[in-house]
Specification:
With 222 residues, the protein is α+β, with helices and mostly antiparallel strands. It folds into two domains: 3-144, Ribonuclease iii, N-terminal Endonuclease Domain, Chain A, CATH 1.10.1520; 153-217, Double Stranded RNA Binding Domain. Helices cover 59% and strands 13% of the residues. It is built from eleven helices and three strands; from the N terminus they run ααααααααααβββα. Strands 1-2-3 form a three-stranded antiparallel β-sheet. The longest helix is centred in the middle third of the chain and has 23 residues, at 104-126. The radius of gyration is 20 Å and the shape is flat. The N and C termini lie far apart (43 Å). It comes from Methanobrevibacter millerae.
């Protein structure tokens, strides 16, 4: 289905949408002078602002820390990948996977990126009110349903360690890959005993996996 028909858009400037789905690999191969990264930057800010506003109004008794933690669940990469798949945005993506040898991690990252770049395009082309209604249909309902996209194992194991007066630290074990697609391996130590390791595309993601492993080893979760 046509992008504009799918999302009930009457475009004022179609160039924004061309840019929103243009990955750098495709742009390089086809000698195109733009890609989606600038729109992704803009869309990220708009997403955070509108989700923050909704949470602020929905939970008037929540403090800054709790609101920040709650927002992270709805703007994390897992959530963005879910929204992007739900909307079928990959159908419009221009990416030269074979020519640029993109990894699975990069493909997942692109899937989340184009949700934000699409929001950036919507904002520039249709304005804030339209973008807010769009986000309300896609995201706010998940907030109301309290859907979990991101589980903060690091915070949970820290609470456990604080309660049991246990020292906790993370250590980088490995870092490999090209600059735009690195893999990190982190270890978690409780009182200097290694309790788990985790891998991720960044240190925070790897630490979350390590914390999850530690909680399983401590039989705090299954």
């Amino acid at each position: 289905m046509n992008l504009y028909e799918r999302f009930d858009i009457e475009p004022k400037n179609e160039d924004y949408y061309k840019m929103a789905f243009m990955h750098g690999s495709y742009a390089t191969v086809h000698d195109i002078k733009y890609d989606y990264e600038r729109l992704e930057f803009l869309g990220d800010s708009i997403l955070n602002m509108l989700v923050s506003e909704y949470l602020y109004k929905k939970y008037p008794k929540y403090g800054e820390g709790k609101l920040t933690k709650l927002r992270a669940n709805y703007v994390c990469q897992s959530a963005l990948i879910y929204y992007s798949h739900e909307l079928g945005l990959k159908d419009y993506l221009k990416v030269s996977v074979d020519e640029m040898n993109l990894t699975d991690n990069e493909v997942l990252s692109i899937t989340s990126d184009i949700f934000e770049s699409f929001l950036g395009a919507l904002f520039l082309d249709q304005g804030l009110a339209f973008t807010k209604r769009f986000i309300a249909k896609i995201i706010f309902r998940h907030i109301d349903e309290e859907k979990v996209f991101f589980h903060d194992y690091k915070s949970e194991i820290k609470e456990f360690c604080d309660a049991h007066e246990t020292k906790i630290r993370y250590e980088l074990l490995e870092e490999h890959g090209v600059p735009h697609d690195k893999t990190f391996v982190m270890a978690i130590y409780l009182d200097d005993e290694k309790m788990g390791t985790g891998m991720g595309k960044n240190k925070k993601e790897a630490e979350q996996e390590a914390a999850k492993k530690a909680m399983k080893n401590l039989q705090l979760i299954r």
